[in-house]
Amino acid sequence: MLxxxxxxxxxxxxxxxxxxxxxxxxxxxxHRQLRPQLPTDYLQKMKLVFAGGGEMCVxxxxxxxxxxxxxxxxxxxxxxRRFYIDDLVTDESERSSGTxxxxxxxxxxxxxxxxxxxxxxxxxxxxxxxxxxxxxxxxFISSFSxxxxxx
Length: 151
Prior knowledge:
By secondary structure, the chain is α+β, with helices and mostly antiparallel strands. The chain is built from 4 helices and 5 strands. The protein has one domain (7-136): Aminopeptidase. Helix content is 32%, strand content 25%. β4 (80-90), α3 and β5 (119-121) form a beta-alpha-beta unit. The radius of gyration is 15 Å and the shape is globular.
């Protein structure tokens, strides 16, 4: 697949602060394609995510956001240095264009530069198309994710 002429822009800086607020605002529409339940005050929600260690980058084509990645790195007892992708979404009109693969490639470089041994993410059980993409990108199922909701 040919690589498209888009660029990846870091929305957050090294201190997890917002350095490109205009791109964060433009990311909302694409981000909501994956997370429609995000609160109305998107900016405030993302500030909380960033304060908790999250970071964001966007794929930009012709001044338009076509992909969003939210990720974080942290230390745990299982993996050690862990690079976790909270959200990865390509605009519906741009799917299968190579954008997701290039975002993964970018995140892989960031993770390696930070000394992380792998990329990790979770994907809803109903997202079969996304799973095929992740398998093509070299991901494999390493564990189950469990949740217990409180009443």
